[in-house]
Amino acid sequence: MYKYLFYFFLLFSSSKLFGSEFTYFQDNDTIKILIKKARNRDITKSQRRKILLDAYNHYKSYYIKKPIHLSSIAYEFYVLQDTLNFLKINNEAIKSATKLNDQYALGDSNWNMATFYINGKIRDKAFVYFNKALKAFKNTNSKREAARILYGMAQIKGFFRDYTGSEILLIESIKLFKELNDNNSLTKAYNYLGLLQLDIYEYDRALKYFNKSISTYEKTNKESYFGHYNNIGNAYYEKGEYTKALKAYNRELKNKKLNKRIYATLLDNRANCRLDLNDTIGLKKDLFKSLKIRDSLNINSGILMSYLRISKYYLYLKDTLTAINYSNKANQLAKKIKNGRDYLASLQQLADLQPEKSKKYLDRYIQFNDSLISEERRAQNKFTRIEFETDEHIEQNKQLSQQRIWIFAGSLAILLISTLLYFLRVQKVQNEKLQLEAEQQKANEEVYVLTLQQQAKLEEERVNERNRISAELHDGILGKLFGTRVSLGFLGMQMQPDTQEQHQTFLDELQNIEKEIREVSHRLSENFDDATVNFTTIIEQLLKDKSVIGNFKHRFSHDTNISWKSIDEVTKANVYRIIQESLQNIIKHAQAKNVSLDLSLKNQKLFITIIDDGVGFDTKKGKKGIGIKNIKTRVDKLSGSVDFSSKIDHGTTLTIIIPYSPKNAA
């Protein structure tokens, strides 16, 4: 959600940075008084630290331990950024609360750890401690704390684009906030729910939740700031309703609670919207003003967005060089701060700005996008395991407690339940794996379809340019040469006899030049129509690129009767990936010197034959590599068949047969 303002503020609202409720069991407790003194911002940090150490020593001297006091002391050390004392005392709080079975203190101390890791951007560990805190607070029916924990967990899942999981947690937290009549927290929850809808392109639902957040906000003391109209502007912008978006941005800019960071973001969003409305008056000033503010505040993510928007502005002005310069700046900064989504955006922008290098940028796009999706999927799966394993641990503890009463019956129950849980877990992991593979494959296909379309467009433009040059030579330059020669012919009649012979020689030479240009023009235009330039050209380029990497000679042949333009993009994307995977296997394993690729059409079936003279393999033993598995999976998806023919030291022949179903077939 890098485009949407205020995510930063929402993220931190899940932690205790905006306040925490401490439970004290004695009205005049010395520790409570010391902690209150330590919160005094008018004294130095060293004085506050000394007071907290005194509170800790008081705790150690008490005969009856109350872990919530220890958790409270630890948190104040965290506020002072004293990491060593925070970790030491908070871990002691967790151990003490566990030993005494003080569930509220256990939840509070685990919440401390989650806050520590979320602000350190170690979100997987933060999720672990959030989950532990949630279980503890639920055990004590602490609804307010449980609701806030659920909100924090929802934000972590949203960060890793697990939108379904995030929405489930968020709705659960909303139910609790409603019971507590906590309108301030409800405002935040509805606002974040709207941001989730923006990420999944449900813009009308996003607007619904933003408006619900506004109506809830009206019931609060209105001390907090949520940027509702900026978010509403973003939703209208994504819908393409730029006039409504501009109205929302202008309304937000009138808000007196804006700080410099938010003001810069709004200026940038409004400028981008105006650019799409072709309103460029004062646009450059706003764009660079926003960049200057972000630079002064050292907001790298904001600077990155400014670079992308400024590049878009210069592209609109047709100043391609300046646009490329800012796109490169965005690309380098995104790589430096590890901002994956904006890095992809900069690669796409560079590919659009530099058609001659589009293949390089799109290859990078595909590779990075694949790795980004894979990383996010692993994180989502990890969070699911965390939740599952925590529940499993609690269930096992209950079973062990029951076992002390019913030894034999309890043992049997544990065995049965463990077996069932194992079976369910295996099934769940397998289902998730299949689902992730399907989603991964779908994402890959979409990216490769984009690549194929881009390359086909590039090739078509090259053909058009070639034909244009041919026409220019034939219709323009030849015409001028002919006119010049005719004029010189008339001029020669007025020359002396002794110069007419040399003059005729020059005329003959001009005529020869006309003939040569005409032949060049015909060669440029003949046998070259853009219907033949698309998919086969892309495949041939792929084979050529891989031959350089694999150091082998290549041969490519294809049946001209195959109408690639009438074959759907998904089929072409899969064919491209099958050939790519096959060539990659040859490079890795075959040690081939010669590779041939043939695309032919027989009996309404498309034959793909790839032959190499490499080391080969024993087909009886079979091959279980991921490459062959991927090839078979894609061929099955196209309802085709695949055959490997190979012998040791005699190379390999791969034959793939798939149905030929052009779009315009009767």
Task: Explain how this protein is built.
The protein is mainly α and 666 residues long. The chain has helices at residues 7-13, 30-38, 45-61, 67-79, 83-100, 103-119, 123-139, 143-159, 163-180, 183-199, 203-217, 228-239, 242-253, 260-276, 283-296, 300-316, 320-337, 340-353, 358-403, 407-492, 497-525, 535-550, 569-590, 626-637, and strands at residues 553-558, 594-602, 605-612, 641-646, 652-659. Strands 1-2-3-5-4 form a five-stranded mixed sheet, covered by helices on one side. β1 (553-558), α23 (569-590) and β2 form a beta-alpha-beta unit.
Q: Any chance you could write out the topology, listing elements then pairs?
A:
Blueprint: H1 7-13, H2 30-38, H3 45-61, H4 67-79, H5 83-100, H6 103-119, H7 123-139, H8 143-159, H9 163-180, H10 183-199, H11 203-217, H12 228-239, H13 242-253, H14 260-276, H15 283-296, H16 300-316, H17 320-337, H18 340-353, H19 358-403, H20 407-492, H21 497-525, H22 535-550, E1 553-558, H23 569-590, E2 594-602, E3 605-612, H24 626-637, E4 641-646, E5 652-659
Parallel strand pairs: 1-2
Antiparallel strand pairs: 2-3, 3-5, 4-5
Helix pairs in contact: 2-3, 2-4, 3-4, 4-5, 4-6, 5-6, 6-7, 7-8, 7-19, 8-9, 8-10, 9-10, 10-11, 10-12, 11-12, 12-13, 13-14, 14-15, 14-16, 15-16, 16-17, 16-18, 17-18, 18-19, 19-20, 20-21, 20-23, 22-23, 23-24
